[in-house]
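Quick start: load a record and inspect it. Here is SigF-like NTF2-like domain-containing protein:
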Amino acid sequence: MEDPREDVKTVIQQLVCRPTLQQQAEALRTYFTPDVQFYHFYINIAGGRRDLTAIYQMAEFLFNYQAVKFHDIVYDEFANAVAVNMTVYIRPWLAFYTEHHNLVFFILLELENHIREDGKKVKLIKVQRDFFERSPSFLLLPFIGRAYNSVWLRVLLGHAIVIFVRSLRFVASVFFPDHM
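Running the structure step on this input writes:
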């Protein structure tokens, strides 16, 4: 990448916007260092580009990536890192319904300077760290996922829990005033 803030969009799109397996592998060879490390909610690897290619291709088979929407991209030149807040839209093959799932997450890409064979200075991805807003496991469950992903339902549930606990404390203070 020559301009990490702009080029990172292309990298991510080549990895998750319905690529062929060959296109995905080529993107990994082009933009990642040979000894790349990958830290994810489910998987941590330090085996390099070959292992990361296997991980991305397995994910392509399982999750059927559809599209990506970028919310915010920040490039820190001093730290040589790019932070990306985005939503990836997937439609799992294993799901018997046609609902899309939105995985909102934050990616931190640590970069390393490299000089290509033509003498051009570029930045390659040395470490990828994925941080999810909500657990992807729960989001994929048919009915629980929709409730889990709803901010309104989670706020309502939080208030219900607070009311329940306050009620229990009040009842306990009536019956056991010396202990409260």
